[in-house]
Every structure is written in C-alpha cells, then in structure tokens.
Amino acid sequence: MKRIILLALCLMCIAGTASAYGLYLKCPESVQSGLPLKCSIDSDFPAGTSFNIVFYQTQYTSTEVSRQPVTIQDNQATQYKIVDTKGLPGGNYKVEVQYMGADEPRLRSDSVTLQMIKIIDRSSEITITSPLTQSPEEPLRIEGSIYKLGNNGVKIEVRGPDGVVFDNWIGSKENIQSGAGVFTKQVTVLGPGDYEVMFTDAKGYIGTVTFHMPAPATPVITAEPVTITPTIKTTTKAPTTAPTPWPTATQSPLSPITALLGIAGAGLIAVFVMRRT
Fold it and tell me: How many CB atoms lie within 10 A of CB 167?
C-alpha cells in the first residue's frame, strides 16, 4: 500500500513538473534617461503563446508607461524588446511580463517575470549658451558647459535629417569658479532641419539637446502691372506721277489750197532774190 501511495506521489510530481514552463526576463538594473532599455525574454512555452512586456513608473504608485507584445516562436529563441526612455525623469521603474491567455500559466519556481529598473537623468548637467535656433547657411554652433566636467572633455554626436554629421570627442576648459567644463564647437551641417546633439563623458551618457535650423524664407515677388501700348503700323503709299501726255495736234485753220499758194509764192521770191545777186 505504501508503495502504491509513493508511486502515485511520484507520478503527480512528474506530471506537475511536465506542465510547468519557464519564463525568464532580464533587463539592465539601470539606464541613463534617453537611452533605450533593452530586455531579453527566454521561455520554453509552446509556440504561439503570447505575453505583454509592460513598463511601469513606480514613484508612488505604478503608472504604465508602455507595453509591447511578445509571442513564442517555434525555435523558442531568445527575443529582445526595446523600451524607449526618452524624456522620462529619473527614478524607479519596473518591467513586468503579463500573460495574455484566458488562464494564468503554471510557471516553474525559478522563472523571472518582474525586474526593477532605475533611470538616471543627467540632462540637468548640461547648460547650452548658443541659440537653439540657428541659420542653416552657417555652421551649427554648439556652445555651453557641463557640470563638474573640468578639463576632461566631452563626446558629442550630431545627428540630422540625413544621419550622423559629427561624432567625436572635443576638449573642454574648466571654469575655476564652478568646476564646470566649458566647450565650444562648430559643425558644418547639410541643410535645414532638426539636429540632435548627444553628449557623453567618461561616466556615460549625459543627455541630448535639439537644435532647429529652419529653411530660409522664400521672398514673395509681387508682379507690377505692365501697360502694353499697341503699335500702329502705318503704310505710306508712294505718290503716283501721271505721265506727261503727248501734245495734241492742232489742225491748221488754212485750207490746203491756200497753203500750196503760199509755198509757191515763197519759192518765186527766193528765185528773184537769187537772180539779183
């Protein structure tokens, strides 16, 4: 009888172990505000099992910030989820895995479904003295200081509409009174748009400042009315000279007989004259 009871208990333990699954959430314990929080999820749940990865702020009460679904695949490979922390204040947060099915799954005792996160906000350490709005026709001026940086220098990454345009360390000069590190840098940009400048020192990420470079205003050209005077083409006709008419013959009023007698008389007078000479 005892053997039967012992065998039944063993079968119950085996059945209980076989029906339990493992679920393992892993995130960094802290992250700088503005940097992505990368969490991994491992599980041997059957393919198709879905969960929610929920991100909470836990200052006084838990306030949901974001949630993302995750579904187990056939190969049960490790999956990664990126949580955006841009603009979040420093403080305590948590990431939790929540089952999406009708019934809560049975998890193994070593499963990890909750992790506390601390967000560190250093953005207040940056002081910018150059204008946040500048002309794209000139290099971008990045001037300011970082709290207690001294002469240690700072790394700046400038990212615009077309990608990264500058990524390097620059020197800083210590302010004797405050101990801040004063920096100045001019970066050639590719045109108008928003340029995010990310600051990092030896301790890690500090913060990001956005500079705006608006497109130059297009001048409005007002067209003045144009008066068009019609051109009248005048055609001058050459004067026409009438041909001089031939003289009209006038009929002599003398009759033909009279004319012949006159001619004959003139001939006789001529003969008489010749003889006298």
Answer: 11
Q: Is the separation of the CB atoms in 39 and 95 below 8 Å?
A: yes
Check if the beta carbon of residue 173 is closer than 8 Å to that of residue 154: no
Residues 129 and 115 in one domain: no
Q: Which domain holds residue 33?
A: 21-120
Cβ neighbours for 81, distance < 8 A, ≥ 6 positions apart: 38, 39, 41, 53, 68, 70
b vs e for 112-142, b when ≥16 Cβ sit within 10 Å of the residue's Cβ?
eeebebebebbbebbeeeeeeebebeeebeb
Q: Per the domain annotation, does 226 fall within a domain?
A: no
72, 37, 65: which is closest to 51 by C-alpha?
72
Instruction: Render each residue's pLDDT in the chain as its tens digit; 277 residues.
Output: 445 444 444 444 444 445 689 999 999 999 999 999 999 999 999 999 999 999 999 988 999 999 999 999 999 999 999 999 998 999 999 999 998 876 677 899 999 999 999 999 999 999 999 999 999 999 999 999 999 999 999 999 999 999 999 999 999 999 999 999 999 999 999 899 999 999 999 999 999 999 999 988 776 676 676 666 666 665 555 555 555 555 555 554 555 565 556 666 666 666 555 655 5
Sheet containing strand 181-187, strands side by side:
126-128, 140-146, 181-187, 173-174
> Helix and strand tally (H, E) in the chain?
2, 16
Q: Tell which of 178, 213, 248 closes a domain.
A: 213
198 found inside a domain: yes
- Do 139 and 98 have their domain in common? no
DSSP 8-class letter at 124: G
Answer whether 0.85 is exceeded by the pTM. no
